[in-house]
Amino acid sequence: MTKKLKGLTFLVLMMLFVLVVTACSFGKSGKVEVGIVLPTKDEPRWVQDEQRFKDALKKSKYSTEILFSQGSSAKEKENVEALLNKGIKVLIITPHDGAAAASAVEAAKKEGVTVIAYDRLITDTDAVDYYVTFDSLAVGAAQAQYLVDNAKGSDVPLYLYAGAASDNNAFLFFEGAWKVLQPKIADGTFKIANSSEAEKLKDSVDLSREQLGKIIGQITTNWDANEAKNKAQTHLTAAGKELKGNVFILAPNDGTARSIADVFASDSAISSYFVTGQDAEKASIQYIIDGKQSMTVFKDVRTLVKDAMGMAVDILDGKTPDTTGSYDNGSIEVKAKQTNVIVVNKGNVKKELIDSEYYKADEFTGLK
Ligand code: BGC
Question: Measured between alpha carbons, how far is 11 from 277 in angstroms, rounded to an integer?
């Protein structure tokens, strides 16, 4: 072989090598089949969902990619477009803002993508095919029932807080809670401490979306722990002696519950408090063990991930996913698969969260 020919063979081999390496790095089929868009990394709830997706995806035959929208609908739309460019066939998405996400999923539908709303419904559009969710009315009802079960006497101060008005779930949680609380407000057991809008509606058990919106507008935390803290501080500064002592607090989720609890705990005129939560976040489980948060509603994210990925795989395999009901999103009835929730307090933390292998015992201190 001449020197020139040897050089040429080497060059051809090198080019082949580069081709093979590039093909491999594009994954199994050369593109992404399932795109997953989650709302923010700033809340442990969604970081947890990412981890549970990653655990479930280890066994998947389809390629997936997870992107976060960091609390911005514009970023969310960019994420969806980036995934569409990678050729996704199924989009699993938790909207930051349920109404604003319509345009992102409409873009996906135009490309023939099947859209699954994950945990939060996308509203006022026909571009949602499926919805996987927990029973959100039951979440609110369980929080309220906990407060009702522990309240004795009359005129017991009740502080109300809600999630973000841009999240359809905030309406479902509050609606579920209100149905249980309202009779106990109407009969004088509870006295609403911090919402004139709720006070005005205290004789109606069934509230319209608009009425719910008025109350939520006043007591929203925006799903933001800082906003929750500031609101709680303002409320306690304004509250007279009759609204202190032993108090009851409806907090919509764990992140806001912990910051509201800290504010109430540091007020010397508050002798004791009951505060609700949801998500079974690790920090709140420690708060429950330590007696700083009363309860949480455990939503087993492993089930939601399994249902969402199961649906995606059915769709990719050309099958029709199983559903158990439907949700009205203001435009269409979206076929839905719903999962039950579990109430967790100090008494059953171990059984529900450790024995079920959701968390490990050594992640907490003082666990009995
Ligand atoms: C979810 C909750 C979460 C909240 C704030 C809701 O839509 O269902 O689990 O705590 O958003 O992120």
Answer: 64
For 5-31, how does the pLDDT look when each residue is reduced to its tens digit (9 = 90+)? 555 565 555 555 544 444 433 444 458
Query: Which residue's CA is the nearest one to ligand 1's atom 5?
Result: 223
The 3-class SS string of 160-176 reads ECECCCCCHHHHHHHHH
Question: Cα of 310 to ligand 1 centre, how many Å?
Answer: 22
pTM (predicted TM-score) = 0.92
* pLDDT, tens only, 218-245: 999 999 999 999 999 999 999 999 999 9
* 190 neighbors 248 (Cβ within 8 angstroms): yes
Q: Which atom of ligand 1 is nearest to the CA of 253?
A: 10
As for ligand 1, residues whose beta carbon falls within 6 Å of it are 43, 45, 119-120, 163, 167, 169, 223, 253, 278-279
DSSP secondary structure letter of residue 318: T
Under a CB-based contact definition with an 8 Å cutoff, are residues 290 and 265 in contact? Answer: no
Rounded Cα gap, residues 50 and 99, in angstroms: 23
CA 247 to chain centre: 27
Query: How far, in Å, CA of 195 to CA of 202, rounded?
Result: 11
**In angstroms, rounded to a whole number, what is the distance separating the alpha carbons of residues 318 and 311?**
11
268 token code pair? 């010397």
DSSP-derived secondary structure letter, 220: B
Question: Contact 108/80 with Cβ under 8 angstroms?
Answer: yes
Shortest-distance Cα residue to atom 10 of ligand 1:
253
Kind plus residue range of the DSSP H or E element containing 334 = strand 333-339
Question: Which of 38, 42, 45, 276 best tests ligand 1's pocket when mutated (most atoms within 8 Å of CB)?
Answer: 45
Helix axes 102-110, 73-85, angle to 10 degrees: 10
pLDDT digits (tens, 9 = 90+) for 235-277: 999 999 999 999 999 999 999 999 999 999 999 999 999 999 9
